[in-house]
Amino acid sequence: MTSDTARPRIAFLGLGIMGAGMAGRLLDAGFPLTVYNRNADRARPLAARGATVADSPRAAASGADIVFSMVADDAASRAMWDGERGALAGAKPGSVVVECSTVTVGRARELAAAAARAALTFIDAPVTGSKMQAAAGELLFLVGGADDALARIRPALEAMGKTIIQLGPIGSGALVKLINNFLAGVQAASLAEAVAMIERSELDRDRTVQAIVNGSPGSPVMKTLASRILADDFSPNFYLHLLVKDMGYAIAEGESRGVPMKTAATALDVLRGAMAHGDGDLDMAAVVRQFREATAAR
Question: What is the distance between the alpha carbons of residues 179 and 182, in angstroms, rounded to a whole number?
Fold first, then answer.
C-alpha cells in the first residue's frame, strides 16, 4: 500500500448529499483532504475525522494535487471554479481539476478551456448512483479526458467508486450523464403513472408493482423507485428538483443535435407537475405524490 505521505493531496468542493459521502470515502482511504462547502456546517463531520476546512474554493485548491467539485448545476460550478475566490485561481499549475457535477457539455468544455489557460489538467467525471452508493464507495464514474490524466486520478476515483468508464474526450462524461439521467427521468415518470393506475384499480398494489419491476420493464432505477414508493419513503437520495434540471439540460443537448427528445419532454412535464405539487426537495420517487392527491380528491 502507498504511504500516506506519497498520496496526492486532494481538495473537495461541495458537501451535499453526494459530495459528503464521496469526501468521506477519500478520508477512509487515507488521502490528505481539504474541503469547502458554502454552508460550513456540512464540513464539520469531515473536520472531526481529520479533514481541513477551507473558507473559499480558492483556499481549498491551494496546494492540492487534485481538486474535485460536486455541486448542483452550471451556475454552482461557476461559483466554485471561477472568479477571484474560485478554485482555478488557487490551484497550482500542473494539478488535475475534476468536475463530478452533472453539468452541460458546454460548461464542461468551458471549464476545460479555463483550466488549460491556468496550466491545469481538466477531466469531467460525473457519477451515477445516489446517496447510498456515494457513502459506500460504489459509484460509477463516467469519464471524459485523456488517458494520462485519468491515470493520475484513478486511485482517488477507486476510493469513491467501483466502476470507471472512460468514454472519450472532454465533455463525453457530461453528455453520457445527461443521457443516463433523462432515461432515469422517463422511467420515474412512467412508473409514477403506472402506480397511479394500479392504485385506482382493484389490484393488490404491492404485489402488482413487484410483478412489474421484477419483469421485463424492471431496471435498477425502477426497482429502487418502486421500493421507496411502496414504503412511502421520500427522504432525498436524489432530489427531484435536480432531476428536473438534468432533464432540461438533456433536452437542450439532444435538440442541439437534431433529436426532438419527445419522450424526455413528456416526462419532464410529469416531473414538473411534482414540482408544482411542492415536492422538489424530496426524492425523485415523490413524482408519484401528485397522482395520489388527485386520487384522494376523486
Answer: 5
